[in-house]
């Protein structure tokens, strides 16, 4: 700080005293400000001098393998030409950085080692471009903050700092309705999919107009393999109400329900989001699938799926390579009902780094062979063979060396004649009674994420009788943060 002698007059007294100079070091301070994307962008931090960058920060999304530019303006607020020392962040995990001066020269080494200086005329600016690149394998949510500091080259005076935050965003695709009123967006938070987990897609709908719009829409996905063959679409496999959107205020964005599914195919997968109800198909996204490692043998994969707590397949565990075996299963709540006699078998698909196991059964044990197709649409009486009482079910799992994850469950049954039938559901290792009613019906139950497995107690129903049955329908609320239509059971009069 500079000091000066100043004449002071107080209460009629005259004297001299030493006081600080009116000009302060702030006139020698470079004023840093920062903008994104363009040298001519909106700069943040002009007129703010703060050594920790408070109020002088910007953010930008940086996709994997891509770069984004941040521009730093170095302003000389003094009335004379000044030289400033400029220092900036270096490389970091998942992100690299380069610096370029006004003459498009690479000054990265000088900036990161603290040897870069720039001379700026009074009232003028110098610019420094900071280019941040995300690693090709960076994942959604990876982020890093970069800083740039400047001080008078003499080492005196305060330091000013600006900051830039780079974040890897989710993958986003969108489409606009034919009349230009609505934009449907799908965001994928996971760039690598895990077997047994869903894609996590998030759908939103934006009103592009100046008026409110009342619309009905929901999201679904279409999965294809590397050769373009369709593997699955997540459209509901049952007839019933669908969650909608409702009114959207002008220029507002609302969340939209999305039907997702657990991944059970080797990658890479081509995933196409669809905004149902508005006939909008978005660009396809290609996502790799992890290969965590499969069980040592097919039989080990089957045994792991059978071992799920409470599973009825433990009463009739399939033999080597999934060969059929028989057994019987008592009512899980101890109710005095005739046991279900079962014939159980398994089918295994060996994917890259994991196995897919389908456990299947029919009851009674001498019922015709019948496998329910996984993509069967549940609407109307099921196409079971024969005319006798019969139940068929499948429960599907993704099995790795370390985990067993159910992903789908489906049951069809026919219960004729007299008696009262009970519907049981297994969830989280516990059996519950989900309903009961007179025999004389055909039924179906579906769990689109495999978290519930159903058995309708057809052994309590006679083959013939006077009962006419009564159609019933219900929806099970899966243990999720919010109620979701992940499971449904329906009965139709026979």
Describe the secondary structure blueprint for this structure.
Layout (H helix, E strand, L loop, with lengths): L2 E8 L2 E8 L9 E7 L20 E5 L5 E10 L5 E7 L6 E6 L7 H6 L2 E5 L4 E10 L8 E10 L7 E8 L3 E6 L5 E7 L13 E6 L5 E3 L2 E7 L5 E4 L12 E3 L4 E4 L1 E2 L9 E8 L3 E2 L3 E3 L10 H9 L18 E5 L10 E12 L2 E10 L26 E10 L4 E12 L4 E8 L2 E9 L2 E7 L5 E4 L16 E4 L10 E7 L1
Parallel strand pairs: 4-11, 16-20
Antiparallel strand pairs: 1-2, 3-5, 5-9, 6-8, 6-10, 7-9, 10-11, 12-13, 13-14, 14-19, 15-18, 16-17, 16-21, 21-22, 21-23, 24-25, 25-26, 26-27, 27-28, 28-31, 29-30, 29-32, 31-34, 33-34
Regions with little confidence, pLDDT below 50 for 5+ residues? 1-26, 466-484
Which percent band covers the strand fraction?
Answer: over 45%
Question: What's the oligomerization state?
Answer: single chain
Radius of gyration: 34 Å
The biggest beta sheet is recorded as: 8 strands, antiparallel
Distance between the termini: 97 Å
Number of strands: 34
SSE class: mainly beta
Count of distinct structural domains: 3
Total DSSP helices: 2
As laid out across the biggest beta sheet, the strand order is 24-25-26-27-28-31-34-33
């Amino acid at each position: 700080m500079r000091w000066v002698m100043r004449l002071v007059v107080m209460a009629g007294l005259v004297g001299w005293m030493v006081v600080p100079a009116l000009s302060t070091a702030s006139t020698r301070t470079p004023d840093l400000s920062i903008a994104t994307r363009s040298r001519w962008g909106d700069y943040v931090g002009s007129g703010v001098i703060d050594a920790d960058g408070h109020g002088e920060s910007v953010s930008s999304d940086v996709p994997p393998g891509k770069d984004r530019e941040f521009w730093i303006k170095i302003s000389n607020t003094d009335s004379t030409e000044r030289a400033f020392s400029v220092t900036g962040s270096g490389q970091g995990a998942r992100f690299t950085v380069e610096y370029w001066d006004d003459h498009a020269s690479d000054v990265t080494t000088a900036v990161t080692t603290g040897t870069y200086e720039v001379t700026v005329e009074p009232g003028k600016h110098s610019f420094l471009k900071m280019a941040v690149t995300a690693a090709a394998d960076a994942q959604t949510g990876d982020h890093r903050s970069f800083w740039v500091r400047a001080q008078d080259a003499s080492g005196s005076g305060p330091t000013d700092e600006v900051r830039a935050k780079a974040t890897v965003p989710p993958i986003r695709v969108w489409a606009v309705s034919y009349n230009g009123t609505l934009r449907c967006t799908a965001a994928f938070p996971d760039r690598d999919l895990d077997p047994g987990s869903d894609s996590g897609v998030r759908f939103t709908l934006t009103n592009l107009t100046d008026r409110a719009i009342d619309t009905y829409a929901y999201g679904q996905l279409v999965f294809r393999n590397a050769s373009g063959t369709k593997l699955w679409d997540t459209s509901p496999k049952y007839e019933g109400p669908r969650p909608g959107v409702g009114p959207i205020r002008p220029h507002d964005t609302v969340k939209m329900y999305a039907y997702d599914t657990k991944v059970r195919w080797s990658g890479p997968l081509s995933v196409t989001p669809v905004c149902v109800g508005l006939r909008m198909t978005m660009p396809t996204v290609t996502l790799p699938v992890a290969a965590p490692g499969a069980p040592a043998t097919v039989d080990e994969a089957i045994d792991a799926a059978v071992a799920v707590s409470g599973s009825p397949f433990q009463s009739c565990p399939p033999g080597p390579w999934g060969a059929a075996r028989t057994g019987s299963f008592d009512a899980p709540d101890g109710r005095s009902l005739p046991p279900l006699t079962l014939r159980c078998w398994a089918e295994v698909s060996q994917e890259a780094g994991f196995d897919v196991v389908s456990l299947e059964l029919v009851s009674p044990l001498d019922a015709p062979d019948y496998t329910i197709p996984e993509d069967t649409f549940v609407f109307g009486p099921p196409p079971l063979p024969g005319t006798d009482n019969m139940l068929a079910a499948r429960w599907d799992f993704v099995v790795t060396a370390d985990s067993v994850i159910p992903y789908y469950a489906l049951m069809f049954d026919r219960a004729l004649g007299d008696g009262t039938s009970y519907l049981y559901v297994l969830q989280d290792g516990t059996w519950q009674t989900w309903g009961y009613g007179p025999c004389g019906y055909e039924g179906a139950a579906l769990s689109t994420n495999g978290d519930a497995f159903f058995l309708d107690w057809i052994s309590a129903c006679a083959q013939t009788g006077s009962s006419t049955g009564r159609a019933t329908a219900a929806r099970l609320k899966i243990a999720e943060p919010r109620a979701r239509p992940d499971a449904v059971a329906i009965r139709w009069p026979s």
